[in-house]
Amino acid sequence: MQVELPGGAPGEESNERIFARVYCEVARAAPPQSVDFRVKPYVNTMGKLQLRDGVLVVRISDLIAGAPSTVREALAWILLSKMFRRRPPAHWVLHYRQFMNRRDVRRTHQTVRQARGRKYVSGPRGDYYDLDPLFDELRDRYFEPLLPKPQLGWSRRPSRTLLGHFDHAHNAIILSRLLDRPEVPRLAVEYILFHEMLHLKHPVEHHGSRRRVHTRAFREDEKRFAALAQAKEMLKRL
């Protein structure tokens, strides 16, 4: 699949020169002997870096390779800062996020994810909880009866930082396996599933380069969940 993103003008600084220059600033050292830069059909937009015998090996997605030079420089700062365990400059992080949050860029990214990406979906039945009947009960209680049911599943690993997410590109709600245990109250599982179901009802809003996931309507709707404070307190203890 060929990808076209809003790119920079001809004659802009090459990717090799951008990464070599930023390398010097982040590493506070002489430039690498050379930069082996290649574009790959990745789904992820960030890319990979390695330093091999003085050669900086750069692999980035075609989703970002044709972006304006300032965006590619922002990515260089982010990746090289991570490589050298430094904090990337905030203005470069902001610039990269603003570009990636543009409506046209996100639309392209989503189309590519659908075409290339493989989504692991375990199925709704876990070791202790079954998400399929839980979804039906929550839909009857809080939503319109025609709310479509996406794929439901559990994550591969019991993540503590991401308890649930709705993947729009693959139309799937995935909950962390951390929740699929007998010691986790049903109310906590219901709330996380309810929260992700709200993303089905309330699409992401775009205002220029800004992207708003939890809109005002989303937040107001979330307050309808019974025992909301109690459920959030349970999750804090997890």
Explain how this protein is built:
The chain has a 3-stranded mixed β-sheet with strand order 1-3-2. Strands 4-6-5 form a 3-stranded mixed β-sheet, with helices on one face. The longest helix has 16 residues, at 186-201. Strand 7 and strand 8 form a beta hairpin. Helices cover 43% and strands 16% of the residues. It contains 9 helices and 8 strands. The chain has helices at residues 15-27, 62-65, 69-83, 90-100, 103-116, 131-142, 186-201, 216-222, 228-237; strands at residues 34-40, 48-52, 55-61, 151-154, 164-167, 172-175, 205-207, 210-212. It has 238 residues and is of the alpha/beta class. The protein folds into 2 domains: 15-116, Zincin-like (2-Layer Sandwich), CATH 3.30.2010; 131-237, Zincin-like (2-Layer Sandwich). It is elongated, with a radius of gyration of 21 Å.
Write the layout of secondary structure elements.
Blueprint: H1 15-27, E1 34-40, E2 48-52, E3 55-61, H2 62-65, H3 69-83, H4 90-100, H5 103-116, H6 131-142, E4 151-154, E5 164-167, E6 172-175, H7 186-201, E7 205-207, E8 210-212, H8 216-222, H9 228-237
Parallel strand pairs: 1-3, 4-6
Antiparallel strand pairs: 2-3, 5-6, 7-8
Helix pairs in contact: 1-3, 3-4, 6-7
Summarize the structure.
This protein is α/β, with parallel strands linked by helices and 238 residues long. It contains nine helices and eight strands.
